[in-house]
C-alpha cells in the first residue's frame, strides 16, 4: 500500500505561537493540504471513505491523493480489497494495516540522499532505536540504494500546517514502503534542525513503512486538536494489535500529530512491535 504520512506542526506567525500550539497538543502530523480547490471528485472521496480514511482536506498530488495530511493513496490502493480482519473501532489501541513486512527474520536496508548531515544522523538514530528492541525485523543503514530511501522535499506551510515528513504502507508482497520524504523547508524544523526531533519523525515514518496506522486514527483530534473524527469501517486495514491498551495513550510514537518534541516508543508501542515483529 502506499500511504504518505505527513507529520505537521501547527504554525503561527512567530516561533512563540508555535510553542503555544505545542502546549495545546499540536504540532500536527497530518493535514498539510488545504481543503479548498483540491479538484477531488465525489467518487474519489467515496472511495477514500470506504477505505477508512478522512475525506476532509483531501488533495490531489503526484501519484495519488493525500489524505489525513500524511497518507498517500493511489488508484492501486482503491482497487485493493482487504484480506484481513474488519476494522475495530476502539479508544486508543495500536493499529496495523492489512499488509505487513514478510519473510522474517529480515533486515531492511535504509539509505539517505541529498540531505544535510543532521538528517543522516537522525536516520541512523531511528534505526538504532528499532534495533535496540531485538525484533525479528531489523534495519541497516547503507550509503545508497536502500529498500527504504530517505529523500528531501521543500514545502512551506499551507492552511496553518506544515508537512514534516511522509511515508507509506507495506506492499501486498510484504515489502516495506520504499520511501520517506523529509521536509527541508526552514519553517518545518528551523535553520538548525534538532537531531532528536528529526529522529522521532523518521521513527514514526518508518512505523508506517512497516504497517502501523496512527494510534489515534479513530479520533485524530486526540493528538491534533480540532473536531473529533472517527473514520468507521475500512478495507485498507486498521486491525487491533492484541495486548495494547484500551485507555488513552498520550505518548505513542504513532500518534497522528507530532508534539514538537522527541517522541519515542512507550511500553505499549513495544508490545505492539513485539507482537508483529
Automatic annotation (TrEMBL):
- This protein's source sits in the domain of life called Bacteria
Q: Per UniProt, which keywords does this protein have?
A: Hydrolase, Protease, Signal
GO MF terms on file?
Answer: metallopeptidase activity
Signal sequence segment: 1-22
- Listed SUPFAM superfamilies: Metalloproteases ('zincins'), catalytic domain
Coiled coil residues, start to end: none
Question: What InterPro entries has UniProt attached to this entry?
Answer: MetalloPept_cat_dom_sf, Peptidase_M10/M27/M57
Biological process, per Gene Ontology: proteolysis
Task: Supply the name of the protein.
Answer: Protease
Starting at the broadest rank, the lineage of the source organism is: Bacteria, Pseudomonadati, Bacteroidota, Sphingobacteriia, Sphingobacteriales
Amino acid at each position: 500500500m502506499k500511504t504518505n504520512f505527513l507529520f505537521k506542526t501547527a504554525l503561527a506567525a512567530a516561533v512563540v505561537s508555535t510553542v503555544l500550539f505545542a502546549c495545546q497538543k499540536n504540532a500536527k502530523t497530518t493535514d498539510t493540504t488545504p481543503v479548498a480547490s483540491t479538484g477531488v471528485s465525489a467518487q474519489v472521496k467515496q472511495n477514500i471513505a470506504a477505505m477508512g480514511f478522512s475525506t476532509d482536506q483531501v488533495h490531489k498530488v503526484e501519484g495519488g491523493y493525500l489524505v489525513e495530511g500524511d497518507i498517500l493513496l493511489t488508484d492501486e490502493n482503491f482497487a485493493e480489497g482487504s484480506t484481513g480482519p474488519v476494522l475495530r473501532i476502539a479508544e486508543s489501541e495500536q493499529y496495523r494495516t492489512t499488509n505487513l513486512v514478510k519473510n522474517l527474520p529480515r533486515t531492511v536496508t535504509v539509505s539517505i540522499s541529498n540531505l544535510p548531515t543532521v538528517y543522516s544522523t537522525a536516520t541512523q538514530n531511528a534505526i538504532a532505536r528499532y534495533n535496540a528492541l531485538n525484533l525479528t525485523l531489523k534495519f541497516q543503514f547503507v550509503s545508497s540504494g536502500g529498500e527504504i530511501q530517505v529523500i528531501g522535499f521543500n514545502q512551506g506551510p499551507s492552511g496553518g500546517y506544515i508537512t514534516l515528513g511522509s511515508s507509506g504502507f507495506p506492499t501486498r508482497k510484504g515489502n516495506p514502503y520504499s520511501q520517506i520524504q523529509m521536509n527541508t523547508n526552514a519553517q518545518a524544523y528551523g535553520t538548525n534542525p534538532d537531531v532528536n526531533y528529526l529522529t522521532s519523525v523518521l521513527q514514526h515514518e518508518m512505523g508506517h513503512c512497516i504497517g502501523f496506522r496512527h494510534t489515534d486514527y479513530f479520533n485524530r483530534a486526540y493528538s491534533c486538536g480540532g473536531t473529533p473524527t472517527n473514520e468507521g469501517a475500512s478495507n485498507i486495514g486498521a486491525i487491533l494489535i492484541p495486548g495494547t491498551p484500551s485507555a488513552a495513550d498520550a505518548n505513542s510514537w504513532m500518534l497522528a500529530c507530532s508534539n514538537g518534541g522527541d517522541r519515542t516508543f512507550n511500553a505499549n508501542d513495544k508490545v505492539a512491535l513485539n507482537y508483529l515483529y
